[in-house]
Amino acid sequence: MKKFIFTIILVMISFSAYAEVSVKVRDIAYIDGMKENQVMGFGLIVGLQGTGDSKIPVTQSSLKNLLKNMGLQEEDLSKSKNVAAVMITANLPSFVRVGDSVTVTVSSIGDAKSIEGGILVQSPLKGADNVVYVVAQGSVVTGKTGSALTRDKPVKTVGIISQGGIVEKEIVHKYIQNNSVSIVLKEWDFAVANQIAEQAKEEYASLNPVISQDGKITFVIPENVKASEFISKIENIEVTPSMRARVVINEKDGTIVMGGDVKISSSVISKAGMTIRIDGEDKQASALEMKDSSTVKDLVEALNYLGLTPADMISVLRTLKEAGALHADLIIR
């Protein structure tokens, strides 16, 4: 039987090897009160080569208002397709200062065919409190290629402006309250939380960490210890995180990432067009038998030999999960 080359990308993470790895608290947790913030706004992209909006009312009215605010006499630009209305979004890091630059994303809200190469006119971006935090402007760059797996066409109505947003107002974070600071694990795990608490007590004998029901580990900052020094010590504690059995699939490029000890129960997989040959016997079957406690790696190797496509592989994993034979969280993106 001819052996096919399986085109899907597979990343295996060994559970036993992973368990020996220690990581710093700052890599798996964050300080409560310190988080990213989202801002958004509306704007116009100009300079398009006939690929902009065609007679979209919001685009026309916004353009007229823009020209009026610049002191220009209103012109009839209804036939122009060089302008597109867009929504603008950006994420602000935990600590940003006035004058810092951030990358913004622009997305067409009209019928523009492409915003590639256009220029975003200066636009304000507001937070949930309706306060302007960022002002964005610049040249738009869109994706060059589509998905290799699905063969999608490049998306020309969404783009980015690298470092095109300038922070105009700082966001104040309150991460110390009542002389206490809290650590929040990005993925809650009681075993890891207990490790952090125990090692913190080894560093500061007077500590009495509290693991609360809302997923926080709260520490009272010891007397005669600076807050910055204490937080630094906690963030640099090394722990050994546990790892959940998980299979993550990216349908766009066919990547499969497995974490933890991913097992498959005894099962039989049958798919149209899938045939295997039993060694030493002149027999064929349209089913692949998986023994109990097989791993996803075993399954991939078997289906690789059979020459299944990436789409078929994803379909098999999804069906195994629905049948209760795949003992892991299945995340499809």
Structure overview:
The protein has about 325 residues and is of the alpha+beta class. It folds into three domains: about 10-15 and about 245-330, no CATH class; about 25-35 and about 175-240, Hypothetical Protein Ta0175, Chain: A, domain 2, CATH 3.90.1070; about 35-165, no CATH class. The chain contains seven helices and 24 strands. It has helices spanning about 15-20, 25-30, 55-70, 190-205, 225-235, 295-305, 310-325; strands at about 10, 25, 30, 35-45, 85-90, 100-110, 120-125, 130-140, 140, 160-165, 180-185, 210, 215-220, 240, 245-250, 255-260, 265, 265-270, 275, 285, 285-290, 295, 325, 330. The protein has a six-stranded antiparallel barrel with strand order 4-5-6-10-8-7. A hairpin with a 4-residue loop joins strand 15 and strand 16. The protein is flat and about 70 Å long.
Instruction: Strand order, main sheet: write it out.
Output: 4-5-6-10-8-7
Proportion of beta-strand residues: 25-35%
Distance between the termini: 34 Å
Structural class: alpha+beta
* Low-confidence blocks of residues: 1-19, 145-150, 275-285
Number of domains: 3
Topology, number of strands = 24
Based on Cα principal axes, name the global outline: flat
Q: Write down the Rg.
A: 27 Å
Oligomeric category = single chain
- The mean pLDDT is 79
Major sheet = 6 strands, antiparallel, barrel
Give helix % range.
Answer: 10-25%
Specify the number of helices: 7
